[in-house]
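Case study 2.
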Amino acid sequence: MATRSDWWTTFRRPSLWAAALGGGVLVSSLLFWYRYLDDLVRDHPGTLPWRLIEELPGAIYCAPLIVAIATIGWYVPVSRSNWRRTLPVHVATLLVFSGIHTTLNWACRVVMFALLGLGPYDYGHMPLRYLMELPEDAIFYLTIQGLVAAVRYYRTLRDRELSLAQAELRNLRLQLQPHFLFNALNTISAIMYDDPAAADAMIAELSELLRVSLKTVHAHEVPLRAELESLSHYTALMQARFGDKLAVAVDVDPAAADALVPSLILQPLVENAVRHGNVSLLGQGRIDVRARRDGDQLTIDVLDDGPGTTTLQGKGNQGNGLGLSATAERLRLLYGDAHRFSAGNGGSGFAVAIAIPFRPCAS
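Prediction:
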């Protein structure tokens, strides 16, 4: 249930007040033109100042009423399950709104007609005037509640889609983390008897890598420099295994170091290059990692010098490996159509190219 502070916070939102004032001006302007043109159609010229006073000031003093009933509509929605409890609240609110609205109309017009020397203003028999204005106010009230319901429905759909996307991202991270961990442990196990020193160095690097990774376990995006720190531990892990046979060159534009990137984006791509590049196939190879700012885009490239693949893969084709498919899916969930992803033969080996919106992290 909404607390008092929730109601007050919503009531004070500038966007709500701007929408209320804009809507009031629009409705008042339409009513003014309808009433004034109706006078002209009936051959009653000279009523312009009267119609202006009758309709346009209402846009200002009705704004608080619109904000109030919109706030009530947001926190007291009518649904199939609660209509017996909430419908009386809206009926009572409508009656209060109509009474206040009609009273303000009468007071404003009486005062302004007198101030502008237009003579006394006759609003008719007031008890009947309240009944007369009620149907029109009811239409206005229901229109506002319909708009509030539409906004609420849109927000619910958007929040549901966001929750599903975040759940998918969490699942993808959970897939990548044990996948990498098992591969690293298998590598250590394979060399621990033949080269205990290398295995010991790999365990130390794995420990550091896990420590760094745990810092961002709940973050979908991290600064590129943090991702590079994580990558450095992974490449040290691999170089402890392959020694000088593996060369990893990292070339990052300083202007891109603070850009936000998906967490755990580089390591799966480099791991894929290690497993399918020349270092695993021929015993010696090179991997290049590049990052550049290109206008409002951040571009990331991971290239190896392996034999590539017989099937070229472009945007939308994620390849056969878990690292490539999970990376492509995470990019889709995070950036939608605002990103580019390609994976396939490029030059002398296999190349992965990524472009995402450039957004610097908050300092």
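The CA atoms of residues 95 and 209 lie 65 Å apart.
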